[in-house]
Amino acid sequence: MSEEFDFDVAIVGAGPAGISAALTLAKAGIETVVLERGQYSGAKNVSGAALYGPILNELVPNYWEDENSFERYLTTKKITLLSESKSVTIDADLRNFNQVPYNGVTVIRPKFDRWLADKAEEAGAMILPDTMVEDLVWNDKQIVGVKSGEEVLKAKLVIIAEGANNILVEKAKLAKKPKPRHFALGMKETYKLPKKKIEERFHLDDNEGMSNEILGYSKGIPGGGFYYTNKDTVSFGLILNMDVLTKKKLKAPEVFEEFKEHSYIKKLLKDAKMIEYSAHIIPEGGFKHMPKLYGNGVLVVGDAASMVLNAGLYIEGINFALESGKVAGEAAIEILQTNNYTKKQTKLYKKKLKESFAYKDLKTFKRASHFLENKMMFTYVPDLLTGLFEKLLRNNGYPRKRIVTSAIGYVFKKGKLFGLIKLLIGAVRSL
Ligand SMILES: Cc1cc2nc3c(=O)[nH]c(=O)nc-3n(C[C@H](O)[C@H](O)[C@H](O)COP(=O)(O)OP(=O)(O)OC[C@H]3O[C@@H](n4cnc5c(N)ncnc54)[C@H](O)[C@@H]3O)c2cc1C
Question: How far is the CA of 144 from the centre of ligand 1 (A)?
């Protein structure tokens, strides 16, 4: 091939996946450009989130020394089940998570993405904001660049990091049009709450943080709520399966408003002032619905590759985006040395990715997304468990039965035993 190239690598999208790839490449002196449709990295991203694992420290060693990198380190995790008028919470207070590099931190996405993009620029990557990539440039069967309006930018390799709207992945012929059931709609709000109040309300010391995943009271729609503490704001939202939402003819904002009326949520948001609202789609197909990860002249990373883990206890996408971006960057460095950008070489990315936690976790939990589509998880189970706790804890003056006898009696009385057994088998197989 005797093409003239403007850059070694062109990356579409300056989210965590694209920036992670850019940072990795720029550190190795590779000529890299990132094209971002937003005004700046993170401008199109919905605000707060929880970021787990050591990947950030691998990309930016000692990141915690820079106070702009994160909000709070997570020492408390709560899982809450909601029924009509009750809630039950498991509250894990894990103070040993206060050691650097931290098990998890909260971040404000527009701030975090911009901070990470600055690191990539400092390392030598070029970031072009306000640049919407509309198409790919082909030379016969080989992708050799990207197109934005009339502008054509040629690159030896293109990394697609466009997030969940994987239009370019389809144009690259790496995936068919995905089905709505493989997507969820995430609605997120940011609330202002004084630092002192956050710490008092959740028994946190300075800079410690709490995350709360909330199941139930979502009109039976698979999904769940989340609540994360930042420095002096909280991020709160609800994720709903798009297919069930459409089939039930329900409007997501209405379900969200009703969710906020639950007494448990009201307490979480007490005295807090909403300052931002946004919504975004989330790929939920997981491992089974990942597109082809490489092609002639192209690699796919992050949400564009459906690399989001939703397994109830974990709702993670940023760390998977960072990891896949880093692995794609490392693979690209080796591919460029061969001067051959065909599938024969780009498959190295998948080979490397298979060794990463990101690919392995998605594979381990490949049945989880299907399991979590089970309506019983969002109606029957929260009802059963909150009701069971009420029954066991109520003291109405009568002599009590043994706890186990009461519990078994209650479960039998609630019925749907066959469904419950099926659900438990599903949980054992998927989680
Ligand atoms: C409500 C909600 C809550 C979430 N909470 C969490 C959480 O707490 N923890 C967690 O780990 N994950 C969370 N996620 C998932 C997480 O946000 C994603 O997995 C992560 O952002 C994926 O990163 P990415 O770089 O692949 O894609 P994105 O972050 O979506 O970035 C893609 C970038 O590409 C740009 N772009 C797209 N198309 C083009 C184009 N054609 N030309 C130029 N630029 C383009 C976009 O503007 C964007 O900046 C949440 C998601 C939502 C919606």
Answer: 25
